[in-house]
Every structure is written in structure tokens, then in C-alpha cells.
Amino acid sequence: MESATAEQIHWHNSFNPKHYHELTPKQKSRVVESFQFFNEKSDGRLKDQLVLGGNVQRDYITKDEASSPTAYTEAVIITCKIEAKENRDVATADCPNAFCNVVITDEDAWHRFIVRLRGVVMDILLEIDYDFCNKYVTINKKGEKVLLVQCMNVLYGSMVASLMFYKKLVAALKSYGFELNPYDACVANNTVDGSVLTICFHVDDCKISCVSAKVVDETISRLRNNFEVVFEDGSGTMKVHRGKRHEFVGMSLDYEHKGEVYISMIRYVQDLVDTFKQAQLTLDDGFIKVKKKSKSRSSTQLMAAPKNLFVVNEECEPLSDAACVLYHLMVAKCLYFAKRARPDAMTAMSFLTKRVKKPDREDWEKQHLVKYLESTKNLPLILSADNSDNIYTYADAAFAVHPDMKSHNGAGLTLGRGFAISISGGQRLNTGSSTTAEIVCVSDILPTTQWIRLFVLAQGLKVKKNIIYQDNESSVLLEKNGKKSSSKWTRHINIRTFLVTDAIAKEECDVVWINRDYMYGDYLTKAQQGAEFVMMRDFIMGVNPFNRG
Q1: Mind listing the pLDDT tens digit for each residue in 274-299?
Q2: Least CB-packed of 225, 383, 413, 432 within 10 Å?
Q3: Predicted confidence (pLDDT) per residue in 112-163, tens digit
Q4: Domains defined along the chain, listed by start
Q5: Is the sign of the CA dihedral 328, 333, 339, 345 positive or negative?
């Protein structure tokens, strides 16, 4: 079997064969195993990948030394809104053989791992250069041929691979004139001919946008010069996609409608549905089955969560170990796309994620969220930015709804239409009134709103006001008055109140009262039902534009 990976690695002179006696004691103790994986592509071809083992590396490489920045989900979504508003030309690109292209410099020489090769990769290397490599081949006790090599380039499985590629990509972008956004190290901007050129990247996947298509073309050409290496088999070309529809970090981005971006993750929703159905078949032993057959409902009647979502029955029978694993798997799958494209599922997810350690039968049955998602899998998140240059956040709290009598936060942030960022989660402290709960809610979501404001400003846009809407007049007055209304409160509540008051005084945000009828953050605090659920869902998903009274 041919190995494209072996040929590409040899092309890059990635391996330097070694005799065991040439190694230092430290190198001998850090010899890394290699593994060859084969994946079948959609066209039937087999793609192989050489991966280094990480167990030995973890003994001497700390998390701080290996951590590489990745684009924040919030930053990706906000840049999509900006692109739609400015009607930018958008392109996505995938840097080929990202890690193999990174040469380990003498400064980072301690990352030149000694790797033990065997099997297909070693056989291919011998075919390519037998005279050179054969003299380094040895036979182990099992009769296997073994070849020790020193990695001169970064390979998959190396704990520092992502970080070293990040450094190379950032260095290249800076040489083109880009500057990193100080509030997200994976978003870079450059001004070309009066237009802002933005690159948002996640490891080797890049999203490039500018009003001028010519500027985008020139940027892609520069990236090709730095990162594209075409091999004899034709592989190694940079994959570039142009047009109005793109796939980026799992999200389908559709810019077909002027001024709007449609975000969907249909494939991930279907994968969750298939996993749930398979789990039902696997655990179909009479334990998981619901006793009463529920009447079939149309997609408009299905709700994302049951009315008793936050109710926990301490006497309910726990799930089996196998069911717990499947429950955890499905919650993780759902959380992935709910944070990105399905904020209508966030309220249910805020509860289900708390139950992954010790789920019971009722928790399993509350996963009828899956049925709702199946019936609405084609529902996109529609986002757009208006011309007000304002940031709007709808913040609300449901008082003492959890079994421990803690309240629940719900907040959604938008630049015009649809919630770009949705927050739903329990508060970490008990409060004595709904007013206090509302103050805690605002103090909890304040850092996010401040970060978004700073990020948008760093992108070169104006932010006139950063408005936080609340439907509790008492909490609004307390947050604005500060010390004037704090005499009878305890210290931990004072701290949160003054945090908001200080932000208002610095004009970093403004807290404004809004009628409950227009408090869309309420959707993220409780399991709404019926017509109210459908109305609120359509607002936060961007199906209908917001009405601020």
C-alpha cells in the first residue's frame, strides 16, 4: 500500500535517521512511538496519516507550553455579522499539510523528537531511499523492522504542533501588514486601499473577507506562496472556496441574502438524532421506554424543553453505566452546535449539562429536545447588524427555580437581528429576591458584553452604545444609583452592584428598562411553552426582527 504521508515527509526532509547508540540518555528516555491511521474519503480513496504518540510527551511538556490560541466562537459569529452588513467578499481556505510545512528551528531544537517508525511508513521510506535508510534499520525482539528518526518538521500528534503552526501563520500575516485583534489572537486585520481586510483563522482553516474581491484574491495568492507545496501525486494544493456559501469550523455560512448571514449545522443535528435513535435501540430493554405513548405533534407544537425542566426527582432510578455514557455523548454533541447555531436549545442544554454526572430516567426522557431538533433541523440562525452602531443585550433572571433555590440567568446579545451570543445558566449564589437575582445576572454577563464592545471597536467599527436591557425597574435603579441604595445589602451583593455601576459611569455600558413583553432574554431562563415559545424562538433565531417597544 502506498503512503502519501511518507512521500510528503521525505519531500520535506522531515526525518533524520539515527542509530540508537548516537542518542543521548535524555533522547533515549523520550523516544516517541508512531501510529499510522487510514481514513476512507467520500470518493473511496484512502487517506493515511502518521500520528505521534502523546504519552511520553506529556511527561515533560506542560499545558502552557503546548497551548495554542484558537478563534473564539463569539468572534467568528461577530465577524460573520460584520461581513454580511458590509456585503464583503468572503473566501475560506485550508492550509494544506499545515504541520509538515513547519520546520523546527534551532531555537526550538528540543522539540525535534526521536520517533520509532515501523510498518508501512518505514517500508515506504526504504523504497524511496533504500541505500540511506537501510543502514539505520534494526530488528527488535519481536522480529519487527524498526527505524529511529529525528523529526526536523512538526508532525501530527506533537503536542506543540498547533502552537508552532500558529506562530508561523501569525509571522506570515504580520509580514503582509496585518495586525492581530488584541481581544482575539486569531483575528487579524489590515487596511488595503481604504478597505478593511479581515482574516479569522482556526488552526489551518482561514476565513478571509474584504469589500474588494481583488484584495481577497491577492491575500489568497500570498498564502499559497507561503503554505502551498504541491507533491508528485498532486496533493498539497490549498483548498479555497469562493462564493456566498461556506463551511467554516463546522458551521454552514450562507450570505445569499443581502445584509444577512444564515448559520446552520444540519449535519451535526442529524448526527445527534441518529445517535439518539441508535442509543434507544441499544438500551431497548424496558428501562428507557416511556410508559405512556405521547400523541404525535407537528413541528410547530414541539417544544425545546418540558415545562418541568428544572425539576429534579431525587428518588428517580439512575441510569445504567452504559446509558450514562450515551447520555453524556448526546449532551456533548448537542452543546457543540447549540452554542454556535441553535440558541433555541440553550435553555434545555443549561440543565442537561448539569446532569451528566448522575443522570436518571427522567433526565433521559427530558431529551425530547432531540425530537424538537429533528423536526426543526433546517431552521437557520439568521443574523444581521442594523445601522444604529449599538450593541443590545437582553438580560433576565428566573428567581429561585433550581432545587437548591438558586436563580437562573438568561441573556442574548445582538447587533440588530438574531442572538449572536446566547447565555443560559444557573447562578452560583443564592439571592433573597428577584431584584437581587437580576443584579447578579447583569454582573455575570457584564464581562461578555464588555469584551464584545472592545472586540468590535478593535475591528474598526463604531459602538455608540452598549445597552443592557432589563425588565426589573428596581434592579435598574440600584445598578445606576450604586452607594445610594446599598446600605442594607450584604457585601457580596454590593460588589456586584458596584461593578455594574462603575461600568455605567465609565460609559462602557448602559442599563435600560424594557417592558417584559419585549424581554427576549426570558426565553433563556425558563422552558417556555405554546405560542409564547414559538414567538420568542423566532425572535432569537432571527426569523422575525426584534421589537424594542
Answers
A1: 999 888 887 765 445 544 444 555 44
A2: 225
A3: 888 888 877 777 777 777 676 778 888 888 888 888 888 888 888 888 888 8
A4: 4-67+100-151 (no CATH), 73-97+162-251 (3.30.310), 265-379 (no CATH), 385-549 (3.30.420.10)
A5: negative
